[in-house]
Amino acid sequence: MDSSIEDQIKKIEDEIFDTQKNKATEHHIGKLKAKIARLKDEVEKRKSQGVKGKGFSIKKSGDATVGIIGFPSIGKSTLLNKLTGASSKIGDYDFTTLDAIPGIMKYKGADIQLLDLPGLIKGASEGKGRGREILSAVRNVDLAMLMIDAQHLDHLDLIENELYGAGLRLNQKTPDVAVTKKGQGGITVNSTLKLSYLNEDLIKSIASEFVINADIIVRGDISEDQLIDSFSKNRVYVPALVVINKKDLADKKTLDAIILKIKERGLNVLTISATTGEGLSKLREEIFSQLKLIRIYMKPVGKQIDYEEPLILRKDAKVEDACRKLHRDFKRKFRYATVSGPSAKHTVQKVGLEHTLQDEDILTIVTWR
Fold first, then answer.
1. pLDDT tens digit sequence for 297-315
2. Which fold has domain 293-367?
3. Distance separating alpha carbons of residues 165 and 158, to the nearest angstrom
4. What is residue 39's predicted lDDT score, i.e. its pLDDT?
5. How far lies 250's CA from each of 43, 153, 244, 247, 351, in Å?
6. What is the pLDDT of residues 10-55, one digit of tens each?
7. Domain 64-172+236-290: CATH superfamily, name plus number
8. On the CB side of 146, how many CA atoms lie within 13 Å of its CA?
């Protein structure tokens, strides 16, 4: 981090720590926190410009990508090998995996890419242990799988802190804040509902660190930190799943207590043993579910339904999305489609591009010749 900016951030953090928190100081503290976020964004922008060409050369493939994240020697490589048949090195010492290792898990007709990422360590968000490369990879996955073992629940706190510090928000919705910049008139604030954590003055104090003249509309009951996130440019919102490995080495009472603590934090959690294979069937199903994938069985005109290789789309996908994934000509020459299955109102329904598909629909696309 640039030393001058780092010094500024340290001074502001010290000021926040020394300021008594009450109603009279909340605007001041909010502004200071926003200033830290803005300075960190500036640092990240500088660093991203200076590290072009570096990082893991992993191309996303398949229908979705899952990143396996955890501390060294937690069992990530063993899990990857069991789920995909990949050849990731396995060892009982730290940093067995020095690069990102991909593998494809085939499940319910979907090809799901799993990435065994190098072990994360404390300070990763500041660049330690290839941390920046690892966290950069996580920013591009469709699901983050946080892997710990039953003996190290504290690892989850450390992983979450590193991800948070790198601008990753797990299992959170993007704050519904609309910011329209304008030439003059200062900052105006409107909200569509009663706010529990913010008021107009506090919103203006935070916003003033990022904009001079703007109309701001807040459409959700968000927190101070979420408002700051809405102005920051490097935030990424990623669904997450916690996997507790080595369940065979922990007693049920200990595991149940750990699971309860994790669920209270709003995270989905499963227990497995990557070595014995216990819990892996349930994990495959949970990955598919968390990715919100749906299977569409294609029926070409005059031919049989293809149940062997379904078209894999995301939940709430439309016929237009199916056309786009098959080939661009399907949309360009689209005439109409017929659907039967869960989304159809009757046995066979004639639909257009805007029709929303559901899992296990049968779809026929009719095009102009």
1. 999 999 999 999 999 999 9
2. Ubiquitin-like (UB roll) (3.10.20)
3. 10
4. 86
5. 43, 12, 10, 5, 53
6. 898 888 888 888 877 887 888 888 998 888 888 777 766 554 445 5
7. P-loop containing nucleotide triphosphate hydrolases (3.40.50.300)
8. 26
